[in-house]
Structures are given as C-alpha cells and as structure tokens.
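Example A, followed by Example B.
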Amino acid sequence: MAVDRMLPTQEAEDLMALTRELAEKELGKRVEAHEAEESYPEGLFDVLGRSGLLGLPYPEEHGGGGQPYEVYLQVLEELASQWAAVAVATSVHTLACHPLYAFGTPAQQERWLPRMLAGELLGGYSLSEAQAGSDAAALSCKAERLPDGYRITGTKAWITHGGKADFYALFARTAPGSRGISCFLAPGTAEGLSFGRPERKMGLHAVPTTSAMWDGAVIDADRLIGAEGQGLEIAFSALDCGRLGIAACATGLAQAALDTAVAYANERTTFGRKIVDHQGLGFLLADMAAAVDSARATYLDAARRRDLGRPFSRQASVAKLVATDAAMKVTTDAVQVLGGYGYTRDFPVERYMREAKIMQIFEGTNQIQRLVISRHLAR
C-alpha cells in the first residue's frame, strides 16, 4: 500500500515516485532470493548510485541530491519497505560520507566527495570494536603517525558492507585517552587490511557484516579527516544522522509488515467473515497502524529540526527508540495475524521480524538511546 506522504516540493514528489518504481522493480523482485541464499546483490548499488539515491542529503555542488533530510529519510523508508538490508547499507553509506562532508578540507572534498555521493565509491562505517560498541571511547585500534602517513594496527568489528566497500570512515587511536581518537577516510583495498568471514546473522543476510584486521597497513597522511583527536566529535555528529536513517529503515520495515498483515486479513475468512472484521484482530491491526504512523512522525520531527539548523540530538534518539521498538512490535504482531503461515517462509513476515531485532541494537542500542534522552532531560 502506497503511503500518503506530505512532501515539501513537486521535485520531492517526483523523486518519491522514482524511488517507489525502482524499489518495486529492482529490490522487490530480487529480495527473496538473495536473502534466502545469503548472496550479495552485485550491481544493485550501482543502480542506486546512477539513480542519484546515494547522495541525496548532500549539496548539489558536491555532486549530491540537495534534498532536505525529511525527503531523504522518506526515500530510505521506501527502500526499506522492499528490502531492509539494502536500505540499511544505503543509510550506512550516507553516514560514512558525513565525516568528509562536515570536517574535510576543500581539497579532500574535491578529491573524493563527488565520487562518493555518486555511488562510484561505496562506503562503510568502522567505529565499533569487540570491546568497544556503546563505549566508543574504549577503542584500541591504533594509528601511529609516520613521516608521510599513518600505520593502522588493530581489529574493528560489525562493519556493514565489510569487504565490499571502497572506503571506510575509520576511527582509530592516535593518542591515549578519549581525546586521542582520530578519523580517517581509509581505502578499502589497503595493503595489510583483511576481513573476517561474514557474521552469521539472524537477518539482513544479503549484505555482509564483518570484522576488519589492520595489520600495520599504511595510509596517506591526507586521509586524516579533521584534526588528530577530533574523532569522537566526528563520530557522534555522524551518529545523530545515522540514528535517523535507522529510524526510517525501521519504519519502512514496519510498514511492509503492516501491509502484508492487512492484505492477509482482508483475504482470509473464518466463521464466514473476513478475519479483519473480527474486532480482536481489527484492533490489533489498528494498533499496528498507529505504531507505524507514530514512528514516521517522530523521525520526521527530528529531520525537520535538522533541516532548520536546530538541535536534534535528543529527537534523533527518540526517533530511533520509538521507530525500532515499533518495528519489533509490528513485525511480531504481523506474524501473529498470519497465524501458522506467519511462521513459515512462504510469507515474508517472519523475515521482517528477524530483521527488526537488529534495529534495536545498532547505531546505539535502545538502552543507550534512553540514556541519551535522560541526560538531555537532566540538563
């Protein structure tokens, strides 16, 4: 079911129509096979790049789409309603471009940013480590300064598109303490960089998540983004935007589950009536619809604040928390609506439920979001 969106311009309406057509044609027809086979959709991100969907919220002068965040997020939601793994990878790519756009020098931006925003260079985000997920200040991966570059040594974890991306927004330690972390635009083919086998995940099977081993790999000095020691500031500024991306992905996933449940409830009959006409089930569907609409409203509120240049960190955490909790609830209820069929792989709702779980975990667990929100309130 097409969502009745309130977009700000005719250009945005046209973009959404293009996205919907592309998502149905390129994503909807491929998702089941790739998720079942756990195979990477070769060439698909090239299609998204050529369609202009991998640089939407960045300015046109850098090769981006020049779209406000509220439009970009609704595009992301539309992609997620067809294929969550692809939408999450698109969100991560957009996140990985943020350090260069927000903190890079004009020369660095001119060299790399247009190709990144065009999707010619696909990005990953490399912040987490095995012992440093929510506690980003505990990073141990080191970047040793050399006369003409940096030697990177250590292991990173949980990298979406690991081994497939062309570059990584890499965070490594250049000095002791929380202020000793720096950000690098690391090449994906550096000598001395290798990747672990893809994680055996509950969902999002088509896009790999891996660890990365930096065995003394040397990268050029001009790949430092911002100043040494500015890494956590860069990481956290990007994560506010990334949390909104995940909120939009979660909303699209929940919308897909709701659509499947409503369609089934209008076709299936019991006791001589469509099951949607039974009040108990009708009320369940109503609660699912309210949760999806609420999730969308929270991420749009945060996005509009961002577009106006207003603080949005607390609202980003609220959106991530509300939308991903809603996705978990709505996808679980969708399985219930379909009954025994919902538990089979003949219908996509069991996959939606598996995919929803990770959204409560990455880009900061929902417990961390509650911590962020409560700290804002305490101020």
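Example B, a separate protein, is given below in the same form.
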Amino acid sequence: MGFKVGIVGLPNVGKSTLFNALTKTAAAQAANFPFCTIEPNVGDVAVPDDRLDKLAAIAASKQIIPTRITFVDIAGLVKGASKGEGLGNQFLANIREVDAIAHVLRCFEDGDVVHVDGRVDPVADAETIETELMLADIESLEKRLQNIVRKVRGGDKDAVQQERLMRAAMAALEDGKPARVVEVDDEDRKAWDMLQLLTTKPVLYVCNVSESDAAEGNAMSNAVGEMAAAQGNSHVVISAQIEEEISQLDAEEAQEFLSEMGLEEPGLDRVIKAGYALLQLETYFTVGPKEARAWTITKGTLAPQAAGVIHGDFEKGFIRAETIAYDDYITLGGENPAKEAGKMRAEGKGYTVKDGDVLHFLFNT
C-alpha cells in the first residue's frame, strides 16, 4: 500500500533543497531506514518510529523493516499554471497522482535569493497555488458537467450522483473555497474520490525559515500556522539549509549539531511524520525473531483488511487476529509475558485495528 506526498512550491522557496536533503538523509540512514530512488524526482522514505526499535529489542529480531511514505518533487508552479503556463500541465498532472500536498513556503528574507513576485509573503504564495488548483478544478468540472447531462436525462443513477457531487464542488469553488470543504456522506465517498479534484487533497504547509529561526519560527511562519489552522490543515517549521547540512553528517554528528541549534529532532522527521498524520495513517506491527516490521493502514481499518496489507490471502482466509497493545507488549516484556498476563486478545472480523497494535493473523489457505 503506497502513499504519496507531493512537494510543491513557487520558485526559490527551498523546495528542491528540502527534497535533496530528504533523499540524502534517507540514503545515509542505517539499514533500519532504507531508501531507494524510483525516479530522479521520487523518494521512498522510511517513517521514523521509535516503537519499532523497542519492539525489535525485546523480540531480538534479526531485521527491522519500517513503514514507508513516498515524496514526489513536483515541477515548479507559476501563476497561470491552470492555463498551462510554465510547466503547468505537468504540475497539475503530477498533483492528481499524489494523496496529499506538502506546500513549501518561503519564510525567510535573503537579498541574494530573488522571490518570483519580488516580495516575501508566504500566505500570499499559498493563496497563489491554491487559486491555480481551484481554477483547474473549475475548468475540469465545467467540461464534465457538460458531458454528463445526457446520462442524467436518461436516468443513469451513477450519473445523477456524480452530477450532484460535481455541483456541490462547483458551488464551493465559485465561492472561493477549495473542494475539501464540502461535507461528503459515506455512501458518496467513493464517487467523490473518483472526481479526482485537486483541491480535495489535504495540505501540509512546510515553513522554510532561516537557521536562526529554526527552533522557534518567526512572524511569517506564525501567520502560516494561523492560516493552516483556519483551513483545517497543518504546518511544520524547518530550515532547509539546516536539513541539508545535517544530511552530510553521520548520526552522532547530526545529533550534536541539532543540540547546538536547540532542536530535538531533524525537521525532516517532522515533515515525514506530519505527512503520515495528514493522510490519516496508522501503524501496526508484526514482531518475531526473524523480523520486526511496521505496516501502514488508514484509520478505521478492520482486521481482515489490515491482514490484506501483508498479503491478499491473509484477508481472504482471515480467521482471527491475536492482538497485543503496544504498551502492554513493552511493559510486560514481550509476547509470552503478555499472553500469560491475559493481555493477548483474540479479535474477529469486526475488530478495528488500533495504532501500535502488535498483531498475529490466523487464516485459512
């Protein structure tokens, strides 16, 4: 199950520096956090999770396999992208393929780095990209609404549903709001997702600040935070310059450098974790002497579907899941002590897997 976060931004905001640091850091990580380059602009990155190391230590696992998230460095955007300006068409096509957007915003002043609009205003930059995405959605909906009229007149139920959802999205967009503000019922969710509207994707604002502002942020990043909160989106503050420097260091040197800067962890770790949270993902674990492994699921996933992430046969032949909560596994010292203490539960098909569950699946072949 792959999840993609697209890194977007105007020219000269630090987007490429961030992506390059992300890839260098991942490439330099120990075997616990492998990295592979799928294409020059795609990075498959391990999600940092201290719980996995602790589980592996208790089980004496020979191998540690983290869960992963993919970051895509998307072509730069300029005003008019919705009309094909610059690399607009490529930009919009790539955005459709990702699950969420990490929007890098320049929150630093530097006379040597020219801003495309001649001024530094991250909130205005965010509005520029949001506007282009909204315009692209409006154009897409206008074309599809013209083509669906005949099917609606013919009484096609699916077409009636699609038209209703399209008009709801159009109403929001024409009111200057992204399509993600539309409330969608569960029975409409699949049809809504099939519309593939750009402004339905959740947004993480990445505030790129100077080294001196990395620990506390600044007035510009604070303004972005207020904007994100009002939108129901999230934001993180990093210094791409610091991240690039850290990517050149070994683990011990990197930790010492972070301490000197007053930082607890690399900003890239926060970006990765925030991207994971943005997609409403959770992690469950399988643990044994051979390997300790993290698996990605969406919140609310039932046990058979969680088993299917490992292999489709696990879902088809699902019998039950033996479940130990992470805290119980750690506190009691492993699977057998947890079982003896009555903390291992047998759960059926209706069980909703919880973040941190340590699971063993029983299934028919």
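On Example B: Confidence is low (pLDDT under 50) at residues 27-38.
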